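User: Reviewer 2 asked us to show a designed sequence for the structure in our supplementary figure. I'm pasting the structure tokens here. Could you produce the per-position amino acids so we can include them in the response letter?
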């Protein structure tokens, strides 16, 4: 693990190095999906269907797509866009023209499902601080809410905030599979060196699912809230 780098943030900076462009994501798309996926386990003997017992096969329901990420401690509520890997195996980033925008890796784990879900956002843009500007100020115990298409809300609790030099980024630790539902929030951080390509570190928040909240009841005559 890299030592936490000293912050060096000038008052004005050109557009920051994109999160994925500095090797944050493994080069091969297949390797990334493998790291993000839930571990596969063989069923125990006691769980196998008994001989002669009736059996049915039901396709699992798709996980609800995340719509918005809220971090109360940062007074943040940002819509989530889908992010995918490009033909070089690099993860895309949210539109830099939108300061209050985050993205999730849609081909990995959906937030709230078993495994490691990934959400990324810029720390700043040419016009000012962006969605994850204060990510490095969070402390263990802070909560992160992810609102989803089925109108449920997945609440995660942060248990660690760490900063890693991009040259020594622990991909397996950050992206590795998990048996429970985990969330990683990522952005750029550390010293900003234009000559070296921009930010030299990444800030990672490690969080674990603590609750799935059901949809709020809608009273007769009221319109259901709409997420975008």
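Assistant: Here is a per-position design you can include in the supplement:
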């Amino acid at each position: 693990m890299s030592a936490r780098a000293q912050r060096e943030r000038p008052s004005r900076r050109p557009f920051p190095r994109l999160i994925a462009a500095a090797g944050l994501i493994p080069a091969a798309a297949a390797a990334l999906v493998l790291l993000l996926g839930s571990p596969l386990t063989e069923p125990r003997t006691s769980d196998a269907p008994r001989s002669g017992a009736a059996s049915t096969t039901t396709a699992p329901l798709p996980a609800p797509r995340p719509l918005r990420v809220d971090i109360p401690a940062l007074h943040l509520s940002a819509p989530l866009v889908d992010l995918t890997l490009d033909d070089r195996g690099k993860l895309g980033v949210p539109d830099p023209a939108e300061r209050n925008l985050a993205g999730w890796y849609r081909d990995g784990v959906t937030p709230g499902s078993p495994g490691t879900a990934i959400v990324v956002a810029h720390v700043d843009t040419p016009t000012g601080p962006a969605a994850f500007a204060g990510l490095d100020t969070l402390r263990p115990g802070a909560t992160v809410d992810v609102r989803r298409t089925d109108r449920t809300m997945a609440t995660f609790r942060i248990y660690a905030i760490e900063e890693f030099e991009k040259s020594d980024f622990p991909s397996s630790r950050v992206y590795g599979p998990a048996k429970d539902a985990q969330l990683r929030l990522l952005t750029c951080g550390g010293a900003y060196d234009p000559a070296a390509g921009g930010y030299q570190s990444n800030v990672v928040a490690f969080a674990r699912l603590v609750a799935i909240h059901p949809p709020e009841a809608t009273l007769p005559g009221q319109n259901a809230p709409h997420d975008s």
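For the response letter, you might also mention the following. The chain has two helices and ten strands. Strands lie at 66-71, 76-83, 102-105, 115-120, 124-125, 128-129, 143-148, 153-165, 181-193, 198-213.
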